């Protein structure tokens, strides 16, 4: 298994991106918007292609790091999922939590965003299993 493989990385990032679309666009759209303090106009303003493009690029970066770790360690399937979810629980969610404390974001806002990271990373790990 190569340290970097384009297709698993792109597929893993795409899985995370789809989770985000469902999470913020369907499941928690109004709750997240209210917790973030954004009006309908705020949500619709902005350069959406740029926002989505940068989001996907960040997710590609996350996928590259996780794939590299998986490729270097050649873990069993259950360990791939532990690494994926563990990265969300042990690194991503606490990092966002620290920022949210200082930004005085609500617990609801944090839980919605933390849930996205957890489910997105689980989806990424699941997709990576298809390439092992």
TrEMBL record:
A Pfam family: DUF1761
Record flagged with keyword Kinase: no
TM ranges: 6-29, 50-70, 76-103, 110-131
Keywords: Membrane, Transmembrane, Transmembrane helix
InterPro entries: DUF1761
Keyword match Cell inner membrane: no
Superkingdom of the source species: Bacteria
Protein name (database record): DUF1761 domain-containing protein
């Amino acid at each position: 298994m190569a340290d970097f493989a384009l297709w698993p990385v792109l597929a893993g990032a795409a899985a995370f991106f789809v989770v985000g679309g469902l999470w913020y666009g369907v499941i928690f759209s109004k709750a997240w918007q209210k917790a973030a303090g954004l009006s309908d106009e705020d949500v619709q303003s902005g350069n959406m292609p740029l926002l989505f493009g940068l989001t996907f690029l960040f997710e590609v970066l996350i996928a590259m790091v996780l794939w590299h770790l998986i490729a270097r360690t050649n873990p069993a399937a259950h360990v791939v999922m532990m690494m994926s979810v563990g990265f969300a629980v042990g690194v991503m969610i606490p990092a966002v939590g620290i920022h949210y404390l200082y930004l005085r974001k609500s617990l609801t806002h944090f839980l919605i965003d933390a849930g996205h990271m957890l489910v997105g990373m689980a989806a990424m790990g699941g997709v990576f299993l298809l390439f092992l």
